[in-house]
What does this fold into?
Amino acid sequence: MPANDTTTNFKFNLTEFDKIPWHTEEHNNWHIIDALLARYIAIGSVQGAWENAIAVTVGSRYIDTDTDTIFEVLVAHTTASTGTFAADRTANDSYWTSISVDVSAKGTYAQGTAYNPNDFVIQGDRYGVVQTTYTSDSTQATVILSYDLDVTNGNIVTLIDGSDLFDIIFGSNGILTKTATGTFVSRTIEGGTGIDASNGSGVSGNPSLAIDSTVATLAGSQVFTNKTLTAPTINGVVGGTQTSATITTLTSTNVDGILGANTPAAATTTNLTVNGNTVLGDATGDSITINGNGVTLANAPSVTGTWANLGGVTTVDINGGTVDGAVIGGGSAAAITGTTGSFSSTVSGAAPTSGGHLTTKTYVDGLLAGLAKRGTVKAATTTSGEGGGNITIATALNNGDTLDGITLANDDLVLVKDQTNAEENGIYVVAASPARDDLYDTYDENCGTIIHVQQGTRNADKIFHCTSNAGGTLNSDDLVWANIVPGSGGTVTQIVAGTGLSGGTITTTGTVALDINGLTTETSIHQTNDFVPFYDANDSAANKVTVANLIGSAAVIQGTHTIWVPAGAMRPTVSAGCAAITDVETTADRPDMQVLDFDGSSEEHAQFQVAFPKSWNAGTVTYRVFWTSTATDTDAVIWTLEGVSVANDATIDVAYGTGVAVTDNNISAAEDCLVSATSSAVTIASAADDTLTFFRIWRDADAGGDTMAEDARLIGVQIFYTVDAKDDS
It folds into this structure.
């Protein structure tokens, strides 16, 4: 067509539809559109507009002409025969998914790399989209030049050029700054006086700035030569390596000349000789530290104020001075007299050696350690057999709590002796936060202690002894307490037993012998008048029971019982039944087998019924399968048992409970007696007393674990059930 009959950019034909034929020009327009879309939009497998009653395949894409959107097939199917595309998608929402232009992020642009249309690449500060299927340039010296060439060749369109946005950028050549003409030139960070710069271009890393040795810093040590310090504050020793100085008169003038305008609050020097009248320190709180072997105050000096600490001074020679009114002469002993004053610090000394010596805590503790303590507490814990046992100390020993029938109050002492963790035992003080009594707050202070309990329903006037040996660790090693009996009285030498028992003399080891062998043997038992003794754990006491009660409630044979159901007592089910009962001869004059054969390729079933005794607890049952095989392999067979109970006047047309399977393997020989493992619990539907229970056993031949191809021959089933009554009355 002439140029004025086409569009400016892509030369679409401006068809005159009143001329015939016009379809060729219009078709060419669509070819141009298709080619342009394929050039710039990476969407494949487009099959055209969606239609009714067409077969679509997975991955194909169709256009919804109502919304001009594209959808991809997820499940192969035939579209609806009527209705819209939107209605078909709503009815089958898992068949379709909406798609958009496929854009793939490829990251940093690289030389010699295969790219496809709509691949998104990054080169430095530039972000571009690939327009064609091609391999990126690799002939240029740098990646930047290759990217520029690909843009020139039309393979990439740059969407964003970040270099237009920044005046300073970092590249492989270091720091670059933008000039007035828009180009970038290299720049370098340089140091100045006292400042050293490293890697100023930033090529091999970050630029670094450092202060050189000509500049004074706040940290570290430096040497100053011919420097003037104006009014500095100086702490520590003054004067290089100088270790001593002699100043005839120490005044603010010469101190200022050495230390600056401000006199320091404290200074320490190794050797200082001061002659004349000198005041050291000018405010409350100033201090002088003197380290050495001795301080000598000559010529009867006057010392005022308080010396709180002489530090490392080991000898103080005071001639003619006084301490709290007592005169102490040089080298002579003097008594410290007077009735005023006090001493609040700690005096350390050696153990006393005579009656007039003062003593030490260590010496006194050593004397007491060998004496077993004796004390009294208000109450004590009780054993589990007495209804007590372990307590929570933090909450059971508070004001108002009750222990052994006694209401506790703050500051009461309590013996805790029955803890599950015996290291918690000991003597505690009742409080909001109970704690061990300070007389018993070490392990050894408890050992050998004898404690008397004042009050309590069970422990009143009892005496307890800590039998643990010294040397343990508190709160880690057990503290064991034993009751000392009898509470009062003389020596016990013999026990007189009650009716039915003979007494005995206490042996040297304290053993008491009680003998019933001498009793007359009873041949006629009166069930209501005769009694049998026993220990009642609920009452923590010895009780008795009549023979009738013992037989009626105690001597009940309970537990698991067994029912054997042979194959001869079973029948194939009407639906999917196994083979009929078959007699199989092993060898003449040897046992024959009555078996039910179950196929190796499909599920087959047999049924039997059991009326459980009333003593059955109507709970779950377990079972074992006895079977055999004609094969000589070791393949597996899966047996499954399920059951349902039916009561009087109830329909038998009910569903079985959930079946429970058990797998058993052949043992490589034909006609072996094979016994499966005991199954897990089988729940019988509607299980109850006085019911008839229907069982169905079947081979799950089509399960993956059933691998034996031959028939499995069922010999019988052993059922295990539990009874909870002595009989069926």
